Each structure stands twice: as C-alpha cells, then as structure tokens.
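Ticket 4471: requesting a sanity check on a complex prediction with cytidine-5'-triphosphate. Repro inputs:
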Amino acid sequence: MTETTDNIQQQSGQQTMNLKQYLTHKVFNVVSDIIAESGQQAYVIGGYVRDILLARKSKDIDIVVVGSGIELATAVHKVFKGSRLSVFKSFGTAMVKLRDTEVEFVGARRESYQHDSRKPIVEDGTLEDDQNRRDFTINALAIDLRKEYYGELVDPFGGLYDLDDLIIRTPLEPGITFSDDPLRMMRAIRFATQLGFDIEPETFDGIVRMASRIEIISMERITDELNKIMLSPVPSLGIKLLEKSGLLPYILPEIQALKGVDRVGQRGHKDNFYHSLQVLDTVSQKSDNLWLRWAALLHDIGKPKTKRYEEKQGWTFHNHNFVGMKMVSAIFRRLKLPLGQELKYVEKLVELHMRPIVLSEDEVTDSAVRRLLFEAGDDVEDLMCLCESDITSKNEDKVQRFLRNFKIVRRKMKEIEEKDHIRNFQPPVSGEEIMSMFNLSPSPMVGILKNALKDAVLDGIIHNDYDEAVAFLINLAKEHDMQPTKKYEQQG
Ligand code: CTP
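Returned structure tokens:
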C-alpha cells in the first residue's frame, strides 16, 4: 500500500474525500475561476487522478467539462501566455500545451445504441455518463474543480477500493466496455503488468470472450501497449496474461508457438515459452533497454521450426538461432516496430545468442573470441547479458559451471580487446586500396582478398597492422598470379 492510499484508507470513513492538496498546478485554479463565471462543472479525470492516489509521477492532465471542451480550452489558453492551443474539432476536444505539461479538455459525453445499428450515437452528457464510458474503475475517478466542491473526489464505481486492493475492473459489464474500444483488453493487461495489479475475474472473462475483437484495432495502438508491457518491471506477467486470455495468437503467434513440451518416451524438452519469459525477466532486472528485452523475448523463436528428435541426442534445435534471426524482421514489420538500427540489433542478438555458450563449452580460443568481438561489435556487453540470462537450468551445478565459463570468456575478451582492438575493427587495408594495389576493377577477387585479410587478422595469423596486411595481401595475390603495382612492390 502506498503512503497516499494508506492516508486515504484512514479518510475513507468520511463522507467525502478532499484531494485539493494534490492540485498544486496553477491550471486547476484557472479552470476553477473560469467555470465559476460561466456556472459550468469541470473535473480532473482519468490517469492523473489515479496516479495522484498511487503516489506515481503524474503525466498529462485530462479535464472533463459538462459543456464544450473546446471553449474551456480556448479560455484557459488566453490566461497562459506562451501556451499553445490545438483544437480537434471532429473529436470535440482541445489541448493546451503549457511549459511543463499538456492539458486535454473534453466535453462530458454519453453514448446510446439504437436497435438497428451497432454504431453508437455520441451526445453531450453528464459527468456520470462520461465516467460510465471510461475503461476501468481506477481510471474513472474524478476530482471536482467547482469552487464550492474544490478537490472532492467523485468515485461512482469504487475505484478507490480497487486501487487499494490492486484490482483492474471495468465500470460497466465488461462486454460493453470492451466493445466500446477493444484495445482496452490490452490496456487491462498493460495496467496489471505496470502496476502489479490483478484483473478482476469477470473482467478477465470478458477479455477471454472477446479476444478476437482485437483484430479491428490498429497495430500501432496494440504495439504501444505491448511496449509498455515490455518496459514494466516484470514483463512476463503481461505476456502470460496475453497467453491466458487468448490474445497472444493474434499479436505474437511466434511466442504462442513456443508453448508446450513434446515427449518421446521419457524424454521431453523444456517448455520454451516459460523459458523465454524467464530470460526476459532476468534481462529486465539488469537493463531498461527495450530492444534488449525484445531480443530476450524473441531469442528462441526459431525453435519450433527446427525441433527434431534424434535417438542419440534427444531433442535438438539445430540452427534455431539463425532461423530465429530470419523471423525477426517479419515480426517487426507486422508490429510496426522500427526497421532501422533497432531491428538490426535484435537480429544480431538473436543470431549470436548461442555463441558465448558454445564458446564456453569448448576451449576458449583467441580466434573464436576475436570473431565474437568482431561480429557483436559494441553490443557485445548486451549479448553477454542475454547469454548469462539464458542459463535457466534447475541444475545448480550446471548453472555455476556455465557462469564460471562465462567469466573466462569475459576475461579473455578483455585481454584480446586490449591487445587487438577488434571491437571497432576496420580491415587495415580497404577494398579501394586493394583495387589500386593490384590494378583491379570491382570484381569478386576484391572480395576474396578482403575476406582473406579479415580472417587472417581474426585468426591471429597477422596482427591488426597496415604493413603486415599489405605483405599478407601481396603474398596471397601471388598465388592467384597477380602482381602488385609499383608503389607496393617493395613491401612484398
Ligand atoms: N481511456 C479510456 N479508454 C481508452 C483509453 C483511455 O477510457 N481506450 C480514458 C481513461 O479514463 C484514461 C484516460 O482516458 O485514464 C486517459 O487515457 P491515456 O492518456 O491513454 O491513459 P492514462 O490512463 O493517462 O495512462 P497512461 O498515461 O499510462 O497511458
């Protein structure tokens, strides 16, 4: 229980609760003065009130007025010099951008359904009508801004008790609230995950019943909620709720496909769904990087496609890292996630996630470490974080052995990096220079020489040094009957 809700519990015996001490922003007094003149009602509503009561840092302010939101916003904009007003006429809303926050104004609305149409008619309504249309009891709380009731909480659905009991519940029958906007099913799971709340059973049954309706929602809105789940303290809670409610197959079928255990006789493999979630949570304890978290969730998506049973070895997933890497871009495209550096980073981590483990099982050779440093580049720390989190065995001896070996890999990486500077490795001779060295036009031979040079450095045949590289190339070219141009003759 937070200090604030604790305080509220003590006050809740009283008939009304006053929260004016939390209305410290100047905009509340300004609105109060304006509506005193016009005789209107206006309230702070939604997330801002919820966050006050949870002692969370509040973000944007939402104000609902029984009347025109646009008119009230215009009046507020006039008072605040330097503020910016944006009017969304077709939605009947307006926003005033102040120096430190954004304030959204909306007229209270009600919706009524006609017998012959599923499309609601939106009309002006009372505060109560407006609260009825909101997603959850904890988001329907309002604070009165009228002078005579200034600071009083208006809580028709027991949102305060739900805040205190850590419950997400729809104000109306869940079927109604979720048909109004099916994204709210995702929002229920997102709030539960972010705040560590439970979803009330009837509300959860509503999600189960209506899961397929998520299909009418745009991917951008879905992904916005998904990313908020991924950035929560324990993201697996949200992914498990998505699975349990039946939403997951519509959003991330690749993760749904990881669930379950196949058996041949006594031999089963681990459930890769729960394994991936454990890795996701472990990574999330160590890092806030959204893309590292995505890499953790997706690192084993290649497993269902590569699963085989072999008499000798049992269950194998050969090349699942490579197959998984190939699946990442389709997922990013579908979810409308960014397709630049972020995608490349997740692909790289999924592809390389087995490397340090394989490395630590064999003898840790300099050449293998150099290759790993070269391929992972600046993301090598994140890769190690993912790999260490990937050890989820229940066998404590095995875990300790892996972690010990990882320490050896890390030590070796440090030594080699200090010596050879592979992380930001650029071949000491460029493709351009190779062309001018042997009078070549762009051709496959340039690539052959360039790759051979890269391998020679990574395998430690030569140092990462210009003169050694030129000598190496001249010798190699001789095998292909090529002579260097005059400028390079001396160096062979
Ligand atoms: N709301 C709703 N149904 C939605 C989205 C929003 O009823 N699908 C209402 C809720 O009352 C919510 C308010 O609009 O509190 C503001 O929505 P939003 O800014 O999206 O969310 P917050 O609750 O403020 O939370 P967050 O800022 O964490 O998204």
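Notes from triage: The CA atoms of residues 60 and 102 lie 5 Å apart. Leaving this open until the requester confirms.
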